[in-house]
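Everyone, study these two lines:
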Amino acid sequence: MAAKTSASFVDPFIRIAVSLFEDVSRQTIALLGILLASLLIVPWLVNDYLLTVLIVVLYFAFTGQAWNIMMGFAGQLSLGHAIYVGLGAYIAAVLFARFGIAPWIGFLAVIPVAAACGATIGFLAFRFRVAGVYFAILTIAFAEFARIGFDHLDYVNASAGLFLPVAQYARNDLWHLRGNPTMFYYVILAAAAFAFVVCRALLKSRIGYFWLAIREDEQAARAAGIDTFRYKMAAVMISAVITSFAGVFYAFFYNNLFPEQVFNISRSIEIILGPIIGGIGTLFGPILGAFVLTGLAELLNAAMAAIGFDLPGAKQVFYGICLLLVVVALPEGVWPWLARRIGVSESRQ
């Protein structure tokens, strides 16, 4: 009887998974399975340094997927996505540091704030037909406003920084996100996998097709009867909420927050580089882009340390060179080019 009940509980999830990937080739499913299996066993094969690098990779894969919903699916360029990371980080950190509220409960408080912030930006832009580069500037302006505001907000220690209490734990405390790097690795891996599945589900849904129509030709989509305002607002709000969880993770992984770091435009640029390098509008693109950029950046740092050469800004120069090479040689991104070479399909609409 128990086995039958368990099977009836699992069946709906199996049907959902099958429906999401029923039109995907076997090669793609095999590649996805190999990637997931490899990531699951990595903590037993690498040292703490490499594990930390992989945490950073998965963090940018997660935020890249969230940003990709706006730009890759709906065609709305945001250059101020750090605002959602910062809001998620500060709200969850303050609730934990001052009131002892666990980050998972804190995230429930983050959701409406991030959604409201995204809705405000979207309403001002879409209602008054602010588009293209002007929409991107508007997102930067909101992120800068948040940076300046938090930099003068005494309740969160302003520019002095907010620090989370850290203690030595005999075991991992998942509920309070206190523990060793392995625990954080699996948390961000689960988040990245969840974002991947959500993006796949959105692409296959009615709203996904509307987004793609808006991305390709908004005027034609409007003429076809699509409520472009409503669906662009949905893209901004969904992207904002998903990105805000990255802020919660960031706060509890690093245990310190400074407005100049969290809300800085450089954070937003780091978020968008992965999808641009990997392939905007693709599912695997943000993941591959995060691995390429973070991995090569760490190799660059290691090489410079080995030869005793310290050049300020070398990482930013490296990112610029990578972006330039991809734009010139692979304008679609690395993943579409690689997918054609290895013979797998990509859910790029």
User: Anything to note?
Assistant: The chain has one domain: 27-342. The mean pLDDT is 87. The first helix runs from residue 2 to 21. The beta strands are 162-163, 256-257.
